[in-house]
Design a protein that fits this description.
Keywords: Heme, Iron, Metal-binding, Monooxygenase, Oxidoreductase. Helix content is 53%, strand content 8%. The protein is built from 17 helices and ten strands. The protein binds protoporphyrin IX containing FE.
Length: 434
């Protein structure tokens, strides 16, 4: 579908066939990002990875992420942080809430846990340790604001309306200011002064590694570059992954037979211990299908991140002009009955003998995007989602609250649930069962 949103030519790709043509024949032409006011203000003038145009600066930052921050070695040390935070969720937070006898706001608990994991990986500790009690709310605010299209994005001559009347720009600036102050505190005052690094590169937080790279002069990195990269990881790290876990729990609650099958697998692999360890996860095939099916029905970024054409191009017989905003509607593509039998139903078993991959190789299933702009945190996200889900299923049985579950999707860049998922957990132990 081609349309004009104000002055912006816009292409919405909702067919796997057309996406395949882009992936195979025009990938580079579609590798820029569309710029919005929110992205410019919140992301250091787009001095980050996710919202910058394709080019040398973007390549350098992406290389740093791939080779230094999200390398397989780093994934090993992140594992310890993940275990610690998920154990806090199941052993402290959830059990405490049960003692209080109420439903739990599982959406919030999942988000908080993933946000703590991200903070610890990126900053080396929680934001509260820097006196930023409200950083969690700030992270949510930023994700929501990044999805906002202002009037000025499509009618530049009306951008003054945002400044003067709507107050949106002021709100973006306030969020940005709060994050920037936190980063100044972390980068300049704490990490640079105190040299909090250890000799073992992979045991350091991402900030320490970035400061080390800056000092070594190996990469040309300013403080602004470091802040931009950190901002990317905050924006990308928690909300996307937490949406996967909350939707997986929702679908399992709606499909009790599938829930039973998933819990039986997890508990069989884990045995009497009642706690899933990272080493167990690879033996949980069905759990992986549950996550895969969740990503099919509920892709966290239903339109990916908007791209922009760098030149004019002929696509599927049509002329697409330069600087066209491109939204790839993976939400629709992944529910297309031409490719998916009983497309609207949650059937993890469909992935058992399927050769369709979700890592950007197959156009009918692209929740992490594709090509050189594809997601950098796929392993990070999947490891966290699978590990957290395994423990939620292993340690508790779950009951629906009397009001049921509202499955309306939230608007915005990340498709979380509009209303938080409330459930009633009942601690599980094998002794009880016997
Ligand atoms: C389930 C969780 C996640 C999903 C579904 C997801 C999905 C996506 C999607 C759709 C894109 C845009 C791809 C494109 O335009 O083709 C993207 C980009 C990106 N993601 Fe993720 N993501 C997830 C988690 C993460 C995590 C945990 C991180 C980092 C720790 C991360 C880092 C990034 C970065 C840096 C980009 C920008 C890449 C670029 O523009 O070059 N993501 N992600």
């Amino acid at each position: 579908m081609f349309l004009h949103l104000g002055r912006t030519p816009t292409l919405v790709v909702s067919s796997a066939k057309v996406l395949n043509e882009i992936m195979k024949n025009h990938e580079l032409t579609f590798s820029n990002r569309f710029q919005t006011t929110a992205m410019r203000i919140l992301m250091y003038g787009r001095n980050n990875i996710g919202f910058q145009n394709y080019g040398e600066n973007w390549k350098q930052k992406r290389n740093i992420c791939v080779h230094e921050l999200l390398s397989p070695k780093m994934m090993q040390s992140i594992r310890l942080i993940r275990e610690e935070e998920v154990m806090k969720l199941v052993n402290n937070n959830l059990r405490e809430a049960i003692n209080n006898g109420s439903d739990v706001n599982l959406s919030e608990m999942i988000f908080d846990t993933l946000n703590s994991i991200t903070c610890k990986c990126v900053l080396g500790c929680n934001t509260q340790d820097y006196g930023y009690e409200n950083a969690k709310g700030l992270a949510r605010k930023m994700i929501n604001q990044l999805g906002v299209l202002t009037l000025g994005d499509h009618f530049p001559w009306l951008s003054w309306v945002e400044d003067v009347l709507s107050g949106q720009v002021q709100e973006f600036k306030e969020t940005f200011g709060a994050f920037d102050a936190l980063y100044d505190e972390v980068i300049v005052k704490k990490h640079k002064k105190k040299k909090m690094r250890t000799e073992n590169h992979h045991e350091n937080s991402f900030v320490d590694i970035l400061i080390q790279l800056q000092e070594d002069g190996h990469y040309d990195l300013s403080n602004g570059d470091i802040k931009g990269i950190i901002m990317d990881l905050f924006a990308a790290g928690s909300a996307t992954t937490s949406a996967v876990v909350e939707w997986a729990m929702t679908e399992l609650m709606k499909n009790p037979i599938t829930m039973k099958k998933a819990q039986e697998e997890v508990r069989r692999v884990v045995g009497q211990k009642c706690i899933a360890e990272e080493s167990h996860i690879n033996k949980m095939e069905f759990l992986k299908y549950v996550v895969k099916e969740t990503l099919r029905l509920h892709p966290s970024a239903p339109l990916l991140l908007p791209r922009e054409t760098s030149t004019s191009v002929k696509l599927n017989g049509y002329d697409i002009p330069e600087k066209t905003m491109v939204c790839v509607n993976v939400w629709a593509i992944q529910r297309d009955p031409e490719y998916w039998e009983r497309a609207e139903e949650f059937i993890p078993e469909r992935h058992e003998h399927s050769k369709v991959r979700y890592n950007g190789q197959d156009s009918q299933f692209a929740p992490f995007g594709f090509g050189r702009r594809g997601c950098l945190g796929m392993s990070f996200a999947l490891d966290s989602a699978e590990y957290m889900l395994a423990n939620l299923l292993c340690c508790f049985n779950w009951n629906m609250p009397p009001q049921g579950i509202d499955i309306t999707e939230a608007d915005g860049l990340v498709s979380a649930m509009k209303f938080p998922l409330h459930l009633n957990p009942i601690p599980f132990s094998f002794k009880q069962e016997q």
